[in-house]
From TrEMBL:
Residues 1-66 form the Inner membrane protein YgaP-like transmembrane domain. The keyword Transmembrane applies. Keywords: Membrane, Transmembrane, Transmembrane helix. It comes from Arcticibacterium luteifluviistationis. This is DUF2892 domain-containing protein. The chain crosses the membrane at residues 12-29, 35-59.
């Protein structure tokens, strides 16, 4: 699994996941919408932890910066 997520991408995903968790915890979202958003937030946390996004892989995208070779 090649890493394809940059730091900014990971931080945004973690932030979105935390906001979703907070909305659920405060009972602002509930029902089916809450379950779908919680699933999305778990996926965001897992992909951020692994620095790998399967959708990016399929689309050939990478937000990771490459170091210049000297």
């Amino acid at each position: 699994m090649t890493k394809n997520m940059g730091n900014t991408d990971k931080m945004v995903r973690i932030g979105v996941a935390l906001v979703i968790a907070l909305l659920y915890w405060q009972n602002i979202i509930s029902g089916t919408l809450a379950l779908v958003l919680i699933a999305v937030s778990v996926i965001f946390l897992l992909t951020s932890t692994a620095s790998f996004c399967p959708i990016y892989k399929v689309l050939g995208i990478s937000s990771r910066k490459t170091k210049a070779k000297k």
